[in-house]
């Protein structure tokens, strides 16, 4: 078996494991993104998110990165909200009102994967 074939099989296997470990949930968005619970007034860019209480785990998730992909709508407001594909965000804050399966994306991050008029979308996310 050639090296190229072994590499191809490894990539396929990694993709399958990654898809299998994705967490289904919902996303909303918020602004402004500074100050944050994790970093105060330190600018961490715009591709950031606030985690639900369980994921945030008393600041243990600060700096963790997640790949987030829109998978569908949660309401009848925007019938096809998803666009572009996956993004990677860094956890910088707590979302105290978020459900256990919810992530609150920065407005810029939400806009990168979905129409902001939707307000709330179905997602899959996993830690990078």
UniProtKB/TrEMBL annotation:
The lineage of its organism: Eukaryota, Viridiplantae, Streptophyta, Embryophyta, Tracheophyta. This is EG45-like domain containing protein. Keywords: Secreted, Signal. Residues 25-128 form the Expansin-like EG45 domain. Residues 1-22 form the signal peptide. GO terms for cellular component: extracellular region. It holds the Pfam family DPBB_1. Its main location: secreted. It is found in: Secreted. It comes from the Eukaryota. InterPro entries: EGC1/2, Expansin/allergen_DPBB_dom, RlpA-like_DPBB, RlpA-like_sf. The keyword Secreted applies.
């Amino acid at each position: 078996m050639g090296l190229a074939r072994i590499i191809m099989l490894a990539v396929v296997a990694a993709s399958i494991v990654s898809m299998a470990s994705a967490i289904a949930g919902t996303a909303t968005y918020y602004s402004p993104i500074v100050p944050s619970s994790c970093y105060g007034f330190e600018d961490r860019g715009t591709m950031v998110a606030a985690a639900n209480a369980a994921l945030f785990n008393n600041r243990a998730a600060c700096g963790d990165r997640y790949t987030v992909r829109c998978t569908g709508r949660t309401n009848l407001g925007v019938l096809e909200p998803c666009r572009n594909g996956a993004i990677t965000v860094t956890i910088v804050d707590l979302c105290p009102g978020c459900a256990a399966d919810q992530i609150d994306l920065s407005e810029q991050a939400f806009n990168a994967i979905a129409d902001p008029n939707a307000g709330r979308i179905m997602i899959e996310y996993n830690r990078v």
